[in-house]
Amino acid sequence: MTRHDPAAVLVLEDGSSYEGRAYGALGTSLGEAVFSTGMTGYQETITDPSYAGQIVLMTAPHIGNTGVNDEDPESGRIWVAGFVVRDPSRIVSNHRATGSLDDDLVAQGIVGISGIDTRAVTRRLRSVGVMRAGIFSGPDAALGLADQLDVVRGGEEMTGLNLSSRVSTPELYRMPAEGERIGAVAVLDLGVKSSTLRYLTARGFEVIVVPEAVTVDALFALAPDAVFFSNGPGDPGASDRHVELLREVLRRRVPFFGICFGNQLLGRALGYSTYKLPFGHRGINQPVLDRSTGRTEITAHNHGFAVDAPTEGISQSPAGFGRVEVSHLNLNDNVVEGLKALDVPAFSVQYHPEAAAGPHDANYLFDRFRELVIATTPAGKGGEA
């Protein structure tokens, strides 16, 4: 970026506008404006499929100083709809870097904006709630505010939106287990991150990644020893087909682990509802209580929806799957951060134990999943997979 970069403007659905300079590709981008509080890991953030359809604002003021590389992306492309920063780095200072963040945004056609008061925008989103937004740069920045606002208000609402088909793999693929194989896990790709798959193979799982459109018959024709539902974008209330697929997993008592979107879908499969948070949890500094150990973990988050389940004591699954407890709780706002079914082998967490940029406090959950599979399946106990 230089001072000669073209003008740009960020326009929020409520009519708020913030003038800055173009960052990345020129043009118009539309999406739900959200903020992320991570001070590092911006490359992992923008390549996380869970951010599809969202304009991400980084609250840390200085972004891009370590550039980009070929090792850290969480997927094969940038998924954010737009990118908002205050002070983009003018130079790249890291021995691993293969390019600059700005160049990567340009190459992949991601429209961004810099030089605005990101703290003011964050305060607006915290006060009013996340909302539709647009970034207009280059010639599009010269459009009148009324015209820009019409474009923004014509964009998609995240509530009721199913984005799984946009981010999922089109074809099944496999990854071999590392070390001693304990069984095969079918991973429903709802926007899965590369680090998740690496952590599963490192625990002895052969990983079979399946498209989000997989049918019940096709899934169980693979004879998986366990099933995993990944993170992903969109409204869990718009994913009835995935809920029914998961209910069949629970009926067959196949060990299940879900994260983020997978946690919301487990909640729905058990019979609880989900709801949209005012501004969500996004970043790498969310305190979560693991009730089984009493430990507080600092965790990575990226979600705008949550499960509505009783947070005290043990409840009965409204869908008939027995007893359920809320296993993890957010210490900032008491949002449900994990579920554990006590009568079927299933659990989930709302946050990201695979967080590649850190923190790694919750990485033990992959070990917990491994132990569940070993304890409940013939393959895990050393029988035929």
Explain this structure to me?
It is built from ten helices and 20 strands. It has 385 residues and is of the alpha/beta class. 22% of the residues lie in helices and 32% in strands. The mean pLDDT is 94. The relative contact order is 0.13. The longest helix is centred in the C-terminal third of the chain and has 13 residues, at 364-376. It has two domains: 7-153, Glucose Oxidase, domain 1; 164-376, 3-Layer(aba) Sandwich (Rossmann fold). A hairpin with a 4-residue loop joins strand 15 (273-290) and strand 16. The termini are far apart. The strands form three sheets. Strands 10, 11, 12, 13, 14, 15, 16, 17, 18, 19 and 20 form an eleven-stranded mixed sheet that branches. Strands 1-2-8-6-4-3-9 form a seven-stranded mixed beta barrel. The protein has a two-stranded parallel ribbon with strand order 5-7.
How do the strands and helices of this protein lay out in sequence?
Blueprint: E1 7-12, E2 17-24, E3 28-36, H1 42-46, E4 54-58, E5 62-63, E6 82-84, E7 87-88, H2 101-107, E8 111-114, H3 118-128, E9 131-137, H4 145-153, H5 164-167, E10 173-175, E11 183-188, H6 194-202, E12 205-210, H7 216-221, E13 226-229, H8 240-251, E14 256-259, H9 261-269, E15 273-290, E16 295-308, E17 314-316, E18 323-330, E19 336-341, E20 346-349, H10 364-376
Helix pairs in contact: 8-9
Region (CPSase): 1-180
Family: Belongs to the CarA family.
Active site: 260 (nucleophile), 352, 354
